[in-house]
Write a structure and sequence with these properties.
Radius of gyration: 23 Å
Largest sheet: 5 strands, mixed
Strand order of the largest sheet: 3-2-1-4-5
Distance between the termini: 59 Å
Number of domains: 3
Structural class: alpha/beta
Strand content: 5-15%
Oligomer: single chain
Shape: globular
């Protein structure tokens, strides 16, 4: 291991559990061990992850905390979990808030690792199970599909603005290619679902809800694996749909929503716009809010939250949506 700094002064007691913060980057991992104050850096590859594993086992680490970083944390997470070491993958918004509270605003990799270790000590986040191979494959397809659609929308806008016939023809060819790629990815999505009956069952429950189509269902499964096991407040917070107070002293600010999983929230927005047309319960709920003077953004956000909580409830109870409650 390459040691970044020496040990910091500490008042460690023999009974104090060792908490490990890991700042994840594409090519390396920065590690901080609390309460010893020891910092190390290893490569984010098989050799480096092996060194991280040895370090955690040698210190009998009670918990390892990493931020969710897309795919760069997955190999380390899987290796540590397989070795019996508990790992919590936390939302970067939570650790950013925690760093602000500590006054650690500087964006430095080694500080990130220390903040994560202190976060583990104070907040004690629950361990996170690694995604199965099927879920990882599902998420990869969902992300690729979203990227293809984003590219297609950009090309369509460019084609609309183009004045040259040659440019229009070239852009049209690329747009057609994007559509073919989207069809291929849709077929791959269905193939992935067929490989896992449990995931297919969850998908069927989600698509039974008026307003939630195949794309929304797949995105929610890929981005919010906690659905069906968390409570209503937790899933709303994970999607960034929990209301945040902006009060200070005698001032009462407007409530806002922020943070959370952007991809899931964006998908829920599109689903909610559809749901207020086709889901009679959500349509009535939305119209009541609008008649009460709520702005569109407030009303549609409330629908998004209600739709997500409905999906969570049905998955928890293992039943499809029905117009008449059981």
């Amino acid at each position: 291991m390459f040691r970044i700094k020496g040990k910091a002064t500490t008042n460690q007691t023999p009974s104090e559990a060792v908490m490990v913060g890991v700042g994840v980057r594409k090519t390396w991992l920065d590690v901080f061990l609390h309460p010893m104050g020891e910092r190390v850096r290893v490569g984010n590859d098989a050799t480096g992850i092996g060194k991280l594993l040895t370090c955690c086992l040698a210190h009998s680490a009670g918990l390892v905390v990493m931020e969710a970083t897309g795919r760069y944390h997955r190999a380390a997470h899987a290796a540590l979990h397989e070795a019996g070491i508990q790992v919590a993958i936390v939302n970067p918004y939570r650790t950013k808030w925690f760093a602000d509270v500590l006054g650690r605003l500087a964006k430095m990799d080694e500080i990130d690792a220390e903040v994560l270790a202190r976060f583990a000590t104070i907040m004690k986040p629950a361990p996170t199970e690694p995604s199965s191979a099927t879920m990882a494959r599902l998420r990869e397809v969902v992300v690729a599909r979203r990227q293809v659609i984003s590219e297609r929308l950009v090309l369509e806008n460019q084609c609309e603005e183009a004045s040259s016939d040659i440019v229009k023809d070239l852009l049209s060819e690329r747009i057609a290619l994007c559509r073919r790629h989207c069809d291929i990815l849709d077929a791959e999505l269905q193939a992935v679902l067929k490989t896992d009956p449990q995931i297919a069952g969850r998908y069927a429950i989600l698509t039974s809800i008026p307003g939630i189509g195949p794309t929304t269902a797949a995105t929610l499964l890929a981005e919010m694996k906690e659905l069906g096991s968390a409570n209503a407040g937790e899933v709303a917070a994970l999607a960034g749909l929990a209301s945040m107070n902006r009060d200070s002293g005698m001032m009462r600010g407007r409530k806002t929503v922020r943070g959370g999983r952007v991809m899931a929230r964006n998908t829920l927005y599109m689903a909610s716009v559809s749901a207020v047309r086709w889901n009679l319960d959500l349509k009535a709920f939305y119209e009541r809010l609008r008649e009460a003077g709520k702005p569109f953004k407030v009303a549609i956000t409330a629908v998004m939250r209600k739709l997500l909580i409905l999906a969570n409830t049905l998955l928890k109870e293992g039943r499809a949506w029905s117009a008449t409650p059981p």
